[in-house]
Specification:
There is one protein chain. With about 350 residues, the protein is of the alpha+beta class. It is about 40% helix and about 20% strand. It has a five-stranded antiparallel sheet with strand order 7-6-5-4-8. Strand 5 and strand 6 form a beta hairpin. Helix 6 runs antiparallel to helix 7.
C-alpha cells in the first residue's frame, strides 16, 4: 500500500475514533488534507468511497448514522472505540515462542519491518515472545535474493497484474503478463504461480529466470485465485514428468553433499577423496546438481554433464543461467575457477561445474 494512502487511512481512522458523534463527509473533507485537496466533488466522492471500502476490508467497524435527530438525511460516520479495540491477548508459552520464531524467519526487508513491529507490540503487552536462542540452536531463515521477489510479493498482496521478461531454458527472453496468485519456495528456489494472460492458462514461473524489472500495471486480475493451490506439488509433478535420463554417475567430494547422498541409489567410497555416487537423473537434475559447485562432477551420462557445463558457462559469461540476478553470478564465477583447479581425476571439462540455474521450466 502506498505511504500516502496509508497515512490518509490512518488519519481517517483517528478522526472517526476521536469523535463522539457521527462525522459528515463535508466535515471530513474540510478536516483531512488529502480530501481537502481533491480538485472536484466527484474526485472526493470516489476517494472517500474507496477509503470506506478499504477500512471495511481491513475489519474496521465503520458505523453509519444520522448526525441530527431533526434532519434524518444528514448522514455521518464514526468508529465506536469499544468495537475497534482488540480484546486482551493471552498466549501460551509455546504459542508465544512460535510467534518469536516466525518473526525471525524472514531476512529480507519486505518482512523484517512488519515482523519487528509485531514483536514490539507483543512485548509491550507483556508477552514473552522468546527472544533467546531457538530450540536446539536451530535458527530458521528464508532467503529471497531474486530481485523480482519484493515487487511480485507486493503484486500478490495488492492483487495487480504484472509484466516481466522471462527466459525458459533454451529459449529467448519473452515478455510475460501474469495475474499473480501466490509465491512459494521449493527445493531452495522461489516460484510465482499465476494466470498467464498470453498463454491463457495457469503457469508457474521461477523467479531467478526473470531477467529484468517487474512492472506492476495497476490493473486488477479478472481470474479468481483457485481455492486449492499447491505450487510445490505442481512444480514437483512437472519435474517428475520431465525426460528421464536414467542413472547418473557422479564424483562427489568426501564429506560433502549430504542431501545428495541421502537421495542416491548407491554410494561407493573412494580412496582419492572422491566418492562415486549414482542418482536417478531427470530433466531438472542439472540445476540442483550444479548447485553443489566444485564438490560434484558429472561423469555420465554426457547429456547431463553437457547441460551442467552449459549452464555454468552462461553464469561465467554473465548470461541467463541464473537470470542475471544479484551477486549470485559473481560468487558463482569465483567458485567456478576454484573448482576447475581442484577437480578430481577423470573429470575432464566437467570439473568446471558450479552453481547454475537450469532445471524446472514453467
Amino acid at each position: 500500500m502506498p505511504a500516502s494512502k496509508t497515512e490518509r487511512l490512518v488519519n481517517l481512522v483517528i478522526c472517526l475514533l476521536a469523535s463522539r458523534t457521527y462525522v459528515t463527509k463535508e466535515r471530513l473533507r474540510s478536516t483531512l488534507e488529502p480530501y481537502r485537496n481533491c480538485p472536484t466533488d466527484e474526485a472526493f466522492e470516489r476517494m472517500f468511497e474507496r477509503d470506506k471500502e478499504e477500512l471495511r476490508e481491513l475489519g474496521i467497524p465503520l458505523e453509519v448514522g444520522t448526525v441530527s435527530a431533526l434532519f434524518e438525511d444528514e448522514v455521518g460516520y464514526r468508529i465506536a472505540p469499544g468495537e475497534y479495540a482488540l480484546p486482551d491477548l493471552h498466549l501460551e508459552p509455546d504459542e508465544a515462542a512460535a510467534l518469536g520464531v516466525a518473526a525471525r524467519f524472514w531476512q529480507q526487508a519486505t518482512m523484517a519491518q512488519a515482523a519487528s513491529s509485531a514483536l514490539l507490540k507483543l512485548k509491550a503487552a507483556g508477552i514473552d515472545v522468546g527472544g533467546g536462542a531457538a530450540p536446539l540452536g536451530i535458527e530458521p531463515r528464508v532467503r529471497a535474493e531474486a530481485p523480482a521477489f519484493e515487487p511480485l510479493l507486493e503484486a500478490v498482496y495488492e492483487r495487480q497484474v504484472v509484466r516481466f521478461p522471462y527466459r525458459r531454458p533454451g529459449a529467448e527472453v519473452r515478455l510475460r503478463e501474469v495475474e499473480p496468485w501466490t509465491i512459494d519456495s521449493w527445493r531452495g528456489r522461489w516460484y510465482l504461480a499465476g494466470f498467464d494472460l498470453d498463454r491463457d492458462d495457469a503457469r508457474v514461473f521461477r523467479l531467478d529466470r526473470i531477467t529484468g524489472p517487474v512492472m506492476l500495471t495497476g490493473r486488477a486480475p479478472s481470474h479468481k485465485v483457485p481455492d486449492r493451490l499447491d505450487v510445490r506439488a505442481q512444480v514437483d509433478a512437472y519435474a517428475r514428468s520431465s525426460t528421464d535420463l536414467g542413472p547418473a554417475i557422479l564424483k562427489v567430494r568426501a564429506g560433502t553433499c549430504f542431501y545428495l547422498r541421502r537421495s542416491a541409489v548407491s554410494v561407493t567410497e573412494g580412496e582419492d577423496g572422491w566418492d562415486t555416487v549414482i542418482v536417478t537423473a531427470r530433466g531438472d537434475t542439472a540445476g540442483w546438481l550444479a548447485e553443489y559447485g566444485a564438490d560434484v562432477v558429472v561423469i555420465d551420462p554426457p547429456a547431463l554433464r553437457d547441460a551442467v557445463v552449459a549452464g555454468l558457462r552462461a553464469v561465467a559469461t554473465g548470461g541467463a543461467g541464473n537470470g542475471g540476478s544479484g551477486s549470485g553470478s559473481g560468487s558463482s564465477v569465483a567458485r567456478l575457477s576454484a573448482g576447475a583447479r581442484s577437480g578430481p581425476p577423470r573429470a575432464g571439462n566437467a570439473a568446471q561445474q558450479e552453481s547454475g540455474r537450469l532445471g524446472v521450466a514453467s
